[in-house]
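Support request from a user on the community tier.

User writes: "When I paste my structure tokens into the form, the page sometimes reloads and wipes my input. The last time it worked, I copied everything first. Here is what I submitted, just in case something in the input itself triggers the reload:"
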């Protein structure tokens, strides 16, 4: 792989078999090279944005203040089609291509785009006709007036056990609902529209009692419909404001059937998990590219450090891992694109997608963390300095490992879909012809033995098996002859 390919998200995608030669995608990459990267660096150095809670007259406004260049960078992605291309082409692939290019330059910026996608998708699928007519056009605008979305599930007790942690309550109010509660980790605070997990009054205190609601920033009277308590000062992803949100009898609308709420919530999370996988690969590519550029220029013991055999071998291993991680992430995209419009009850293809999504999120996020750490080691001491940027990739990667479910959550959710839906059997059937038959049979036997263990052992000894299953899947997809048809129908 040439250095030029490694330095370009578009060229790298082309090399690993993803059709990414669209004019709009190349132009998007070129804009980041000209302007976007500089804006991104400045925003990262500036740190957490400022929350302006009141105007000069003392009225509550909850306005998030960034430098004007930040809004120019953010709105550029929406104008280029981060949301509207999905519905123009009836495919999620354009968004994930744009997310990959975004994450190569600014992984944090991919977050507002992702949660906006995760808002517009359930609105388009489950919203009543009146809701869609009212809100969808605002989110699919092609200018700077476009609305942003957000997905707010997590409360102070944490996000893994939503059934016990969500205390936000929804009360019926005619055709509307009134939400009261607090969200603790609210990405894209200040969004014009959010999908929110809440419990209808009197519903069971478990995941089956949760429903999904659409909540606008302003109510029908034009007043603020939710309030931002504060913004978080966090390790990275400074290109997305994360805050605490207060609902106090806030107007909302139920999406889908109340008893199907947990399924809708998981649909939303899985859109983000796939985006996380794509972003993790993009970050790893960027870290390797930057490390390679540095290694060509840094001299030690009489020659550039890239010419030292040990380091060159490490680069080769990282590139092989990058290819495998990329194939796993984009397989999750491909499978999602086939099932994203399904509603409960789901097909077998949807359960296959679920398992691959958990494997991809788990594997690619860990690969990104370890690759960013290794890249910093290539730089040595100067890698800890902000001006070299590699320390930023490590900060950003640490968030990717946690966002939308830690590795523990991916393993447990993957275990659940194997137990309840036999998704592992669907996966092995999917991999026939892509990996040696004996290898597939051996792994299938391991999974079946794991599922047959007592509950404590089944969960307690899961990590090695799950990692091996992810690795097998990635390697099998990597060895497959590259097929681009699923990605090749997008127009110029």
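"...and here is what came back when it finally went through:"
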């Amino acid at each position: 792989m040439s250095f030029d390919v490694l330095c370009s998200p578009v060229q790298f995608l082309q090399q690993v078999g993803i059709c990414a030669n669209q004019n709009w995608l190349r132009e998007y990459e070129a804009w980041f090279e000209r302007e976007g990267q500089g804006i991104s660096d400045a925003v990262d150095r500036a740190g957490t944005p400022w929350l302006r809670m009141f105007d000069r007259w003392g009225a509550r406004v909850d306005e998030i203040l960034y430098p004007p260049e930040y809004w120019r960078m953010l709105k550029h992605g929406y104008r280029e089609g981060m949301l509207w291309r999905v519905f123009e082409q009836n495919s999620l692939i354009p968004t994930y291509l744009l997310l990959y290019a975004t994450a190569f330059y600014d992984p944090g910026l991919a977050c507002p785009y992702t949660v906006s996608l995760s808002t517009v998708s359930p609105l388009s699928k489950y919203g009543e006709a009146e809701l869609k007519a009212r809100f969808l056009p605002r989110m699919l605008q092609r200018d700077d007036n476009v609305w942003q979305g957000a997905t707010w599930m997590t409360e102070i007790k944490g996000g893994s056990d939503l059934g016990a942690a969500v205390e936000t309550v929804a009360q019926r109010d005619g055709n509307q609902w009134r939400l009261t509660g607090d969200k603790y980790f609210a990405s894209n605070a200040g969004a014009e529209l959010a999908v929110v997990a809440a419990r209808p009054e009197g519903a069971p205190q478990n995941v089956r009692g949760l429903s999904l609601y659409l909540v606008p920033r302003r109510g029908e009277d034009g007043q603020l419909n939710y309030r931002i308590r504060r913004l978080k000062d966090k390790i990275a992803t400074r290109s997305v404001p994360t805050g605490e949100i207060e609902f106090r009898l806030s107007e909302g609308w139920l999406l889908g059937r109340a008893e199907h709420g947990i399924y809708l919530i998981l649909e939303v999370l899985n859109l983000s998990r796939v985006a996380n996988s794509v972003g993790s690969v993009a970050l790893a590519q960027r870290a390797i590219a930057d490390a390679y550029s540095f290694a060509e220029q840094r001299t030690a013991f009489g020659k550039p450090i890239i010419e030292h055999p040990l380091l060159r071998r490490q680069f080769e291993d990282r590139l092989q891992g990058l290819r495998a991680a990329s194939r796993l992430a984009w397989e999750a995209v491909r499978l999602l694109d086939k099932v994203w419009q399904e509603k409960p009850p789901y097909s077998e293809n949807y359960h296959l997608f679920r398992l691959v999504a958990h494997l991809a999120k788990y594997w690619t996020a860990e690969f990104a963390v370890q690759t960013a750490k290794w890249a910093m080691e290539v730089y040595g001491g100067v890698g800890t300095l902000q001006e070299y940027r590699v320390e930023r990739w490590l900060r950003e990667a640490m968030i990717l490992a946690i966002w939308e479910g830690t590795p523990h959550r991916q393993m447990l959710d993957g275990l659940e879909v194997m137990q309840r839906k036999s998704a592992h059997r669907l996966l092995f059937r999917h991999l026939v012809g892509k990996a040696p038959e004996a290898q597939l049979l051996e792994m299938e036997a391991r999974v079946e033995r794991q599922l047959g263990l007592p509950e404590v052992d089944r969960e307690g000894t899961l990590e090695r098996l799950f990692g091996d299953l992810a690795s097998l899947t990635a390697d099998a997809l990597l060895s497959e002859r590259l097929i681009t048809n699923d990605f090749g129908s997008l127009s110029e």
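Agent notes: The reload is a front-end session timeout and is unrelated to the input. The chain has three domains: 3-139, 149-259, 262-479. Residues 482-492 have pLDDT under 50 and may be disordered. Escalated to web team.
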